[in-house]
Structure formats: structure tokens, C-alpha cells
Automatic annotation (TrEMBL):
Basic and acidic residues bias spans: 231-247
Species, as recorded: Nocardiopsis alba
Lineage: Bacteria, Bacillati, Actinomycetota, Actinomycetes, Streptosporangiales
Domain (Amidase): residue spans on this chain: 24-444
Protein origin, superkingdom: Bacteria
PANTHER family found in the cross-reference section: AMIDASE AMID-RELATED (PTHR11895:SF176), TRANSAMIDASE (PTHR11895)
PROSITE patterns noted in UniProt: AMIDASES (PS00571)
Coiled coil: none
Protein name: Amidase
Chain spans, region Disordered: 231-252
Amino acid sequence: MRPYESTLATTATLIRERRLSPVELVDSVLERIERIEPHLEAYVMVAAEQARPAAREAEREISQGEYRGPLHGVPVGLKDLIDVAGMPTTASSRVRTDHRATADSTVAARLRSAGAVLVGKTHTHEFAYGLTTPQTGNAWDRSRVGGGSSGGSAVAVAAGEATFSLGTDTGGSIRVPSALNGVVGLKPTYGLVPRHGITPLSWSLDHVGPITRTVEDAALVLNALTGHDPRDPASLDTLPVDHRPETDPDLSGVRVGVPSHYYFEHVDPEVAAAVHHAIAGMEELGARLVEVEIPMTRYVQATQWGLMVPEATTYHERTLRTVPELYQEDVRILLEAGELMSAGDHLRAQRARTLMRDAWNRLLEEVDMVASPTVPMTAVPATQESVAWPDGTTESVSDAYVRLSAPANITGLPALSVPVGHDTAGMPIGMQLIGRPLDERTLLRAGHAYERARPARALAPVG
């Protein structure tokens, strides 16, 4: 196995035991990027000139007994909304052509402290305002969407262009591309990981979290990211938690809620079958399945849009007036639509958010988590704009991709997407697990148990 193919957990062990050099690992990843990046376009920019010296410094520190932990010397890609001192933060937009960050974001600083090596900034749908990331091809089939808005981050991990990455998630933007590219995506509890230094889309809904190849890897990254930061008003002041799951794939006593409606409606039959099979696999590991009714589903879309649209427009108010021509058309139209929404619309959405959060918290007194598809269909061709369901209804691709992930953003609940197979076209399928506030450990335990009971997954067959 070549170094770029290894999981974070495996790589960390090899580096700690001095059986793999950070220089060898980073060179392997950079060579992989050079070879396949023209096909995928996962990166806005590749930081090879900074990454190689950082790898040499990590190797020197480790040789002198200054090992910092499992991220030390490991290559990471950061979604290009995340500030890194001295580097551009373009948000994949012409609006940000001349922008350069003057300081690290909180998460970038924490990864730097942990010894991670930044290999580049990954593409996002412009300003994270979309679910397809059109400039980036899917790692399994470049003619299909990579998913968004953290498409570059997910594709990079799936293709071996980074050992792990960070994305942001406002309506599903970590989980959607993770599911479509066959990797693990974790949206933590709202406020658990500080967002200071990250370009916002919607303050009420934005999260930041890891995209990795395994659930264990996600836990290792999450451990490095958590902790209060007063510069983010939503940042939670919580006690430190070791999120690493147990090695034993036993789910005895875990109650898994299986939705009776909403999450399996307007879902491709192959996706539904794969997720039901995965849920049955969790039952075989000891979980108890409980049928549940999802609350307030008719209000999900209105609440999501009522929060996100006016907040995004407020952030972009100045540039929308001065340089509207620099925005892509789809994003500009959404930003202009936000100017038509009233304060009353936003307040009603905030009230609905509170009611929905309370209703989900009551549901999660009955079960430990809810299991569902992450997205209703696998990655569609890049030119496809809508999907037709058997009952005659039609839905835009973006609306379809956000429909099953948005409730966890509105409620702020932690949500994990885990690969559970492929459709007949060979495209990945993801299962979503939604848990209680600050109970990431239980989600990670369940996801880790499931993936340990299944054969190991390979990288996407690209290049």
C-alpha cells in the first residue's frame, strides 16, 4: 500500500513508530495530486512549497521525541472558506480574487498546533451556497457531481489527495459530498467546533467538521478541533471528551430510530435498500431498532430557507451591490432573493427552529440516534438539474440533496454520514446517523462498529 492510500489512524501509528516519515507521506500525497488533480479539480490551490518544509519540520520534531499526536505530519486539505495566515481565501469566487488571510482561523490554528501539514485549499460551491460544487468532478466518476458545498474536500479524501480534510455544513455540505464520494463526514453539534476565521453562509446554521476515510479517523480529527473560543458567539464551553470509539463492534443497548416517513420518501430504491440493509447490520451487532415518527417535517424546507437566505444576503450586502457581476448566476439570484425576505420571515424561521429542536430532543429521549439515507440518490450527471420521482413529482437536484440533511442543521444535532455500499452504476451510498446534542461519541461508536463489521473500503478508482 502506498502512503497516500493509508487511513489517518494507520498513518499515525506508522509515523509514531518511525516506520513512515512525514516527508515520505506528504511527497506521496503531493505526487498523487499532481497526477490526478487535472481530472478532478478538487483544489483551488496546492501548497507544495509550504507543505514540504512543514513535513521536514514534523520529521525533525518526531525524531527528537516531540511527537504531538495522531495528526502530526499528516496531510490535510482545507475548504477554501477557512482562513490560513498568508494564504488566499477565495471561497471559489471571483469576488475574493484579491483576498488574503492575515491570521489563522481557530481550526487552522488547532491543526497547526497538532502538527498537521496543509497541502492545499479545496474547492467549494461559490461561498458554500450550493450542493454540487460544479468545478469539481466526483471521485468515482468525474462526469457526475462531486456534491457540495464541501465537494473539493470530500473528493480529495476519496481520491487520496489528502489523508483528511475539513469542510463546512450549513444544510448538509459535509455529509452530502461525503455520501456521494464514499467517505465519512461528521457535522458536529452546533457550537462544538469554533467557526472563527471561516467565511460564513448562515450564522444560525453553519458548522465545521472533518471528512475522513473512516469513522475512527473522524474521531481523531474531532479531538483536535473542539474547545471553546469566545470569538465565535455560538462556541460551547464544554469539558474535553475523547471521541475515539471502542475497538469492539458491539452495539448492545443502543436504540436506533428507524423513521416511518420522510427519510425514506422520495428516495431511490437502491439507496433505500442499502440503508435498510446497513440498519439491519447494526441490529445484528446488538442495536435495538425502534420505529420513530420525525417531527415537523412539513416545516423543514421553509425553516432552512428562512434562516439561510436572509443571513447569507446580509453578509454579502456590500459586494452584491458593488460587484454583482462577479458572482456566479445561481448564487447571485439566491442573494438577490434574500433582499425580498422580511425580518418577520426570519423571526418566524427562528421560532420554528426552536420548536423543531425541542421536538427532536424529545424524540431522542426514546432512541439514541436516528438512522436514514444521507441523500435520496447517488451522484447525478453534472448536467442534470432535476429529478423526477415515481409519483410524478419533480425536485431540483439541490433541493433533493439537502432535504434529508437539513434537519440536523436546523436543530444543531450531530450527524454522521457513513458509506454503506454502491448502486448498480458503482456510485457510493451513504447512511446518516443523527444523535443527541454533544453525543458525538455514541454516533462514532455506532458508525465505527458498522464499518468494522464490513470489508475495508478502497480509494476511489481514479488515476
